[in-house]
Structures are given as C-alpha cells and as structure tokens.
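ENCODED BACKBONE
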Amino acid sequence: MEKRGIIIYFLFIFLLILCFYLDNPISLAIARLRTDFLNNLFVFITSITNEILIIFFFSLFFIWKDEKREWILPLWISFIIGAVLSLIIKISVQRLRPFQQGLINTLPSLVEQSHSLWNFSFPSSHTLLAFCLLPILIKAYPKLKEFFISLMLFIGFSRIYLGLHFLSDVFAGAIIGYGIGKLVVMKEENTKFGERTYKKIREKIKVIKRKTFGR
C-alpha cells in the first residue's frame, strides 16, 4: 500500500508538471471555442456554483433524508479545510489568472466581479471546493456517482473556458480537494464523528420539543 501511495504521488506530480507545460496552449485552444451560447452557459454555471451557494445547496441535499444527515458535519469540515487551504496556497503562490496575464480575455462581467488582490489563480478554489465535497457526496449517494463526477468536471472546465484559470490550477484544485474529502470520509468511517454529533443534536431537539410542547 505504501509503495502504491508513492507511485500515485509521483504520478500526480508528473501530471501537474505536464499541465503547467500545456497551460498556455490549452487556454488558447479552448478560448477559440467560445460562442455566445457557451459564454452564457458557463457564466450561469459559475454563478450557481459560487462557494457559498454550493455548500448550502448540498447541505439541503443531505437534510432532505434523515439517514443522510450524519454527513452534514463531514461535508462542512471538508469545505472549511478546503477553503482555508486554498486561500493559503493562493496567497503563497500569487499566480495571476490567464486574463490578468494578457494571454486571453475573459468576459467584462467577470472582470467587474473583481478577483481581488488576494484571490489569485493557483489553485482554482471553485474546483477545489467542489471536489472536496465529491467523496462525501459519492459515499452518501453512490447511485449518483456519475452525475456528481460529471458536475464537478463541468465546473472545472468552466473555469478554463472563461479564462479565469489555467489547466494546472484546475488539476491541482481537483486533486487537493478530492484528497481532503477522501480523508474526511475515512475519518468519519473510523470514528463516526458526524453520526455521533447528529444523534446528540437530534436527542437535544427531542428534549426541547418535549419541554416546549409537553410531548
């Protein structure tokens, strides 16, 4: 297992280096595919996959079924770890986005939304946060695995298409995010911290209801 882990680690490093090499050609090639329809589509995808919206949407997804609610805490823990780590890496690396480097243009509306000084390109936080939720979503809803994977890949591609990120930004975000989510899932399976926390909260709510309504 240790040998396999080392091989996977070096494989990811190799692929990341390859992505850096392909960054400019890929960005230029994808920019040539732009149409008004695709522009509107990917801007819409970007707006509905805002970091805050996506965590609240999937939280509601878990609240919908009682037996899935134990995964809400792991979902939020994964999201918070991903957000903090993404910010630290961005500030440390300080890589400019493709449109900021003058390689390609992005849409005026996206420039005006302003990617502030701290919000650099590497890694893609949209992609990182989407992928850190992926292992938890798959664990809770295995039948929707293909849908969730397709959705996260679509989010990642939209960042490249709009000129907001390079291929390497998205690849790194996906790998880091998925790794965080996987570790949180493993922790939950070993300790059941999410399940235990949810049961405690549920019992406290029952006690409050009995005291309030007398039943």
Q: What stands out?
A: Residues 2-31 form the longest helix (30 residues). The chain has a mean pLDDT of 84. Residues 2-213 form one domain.
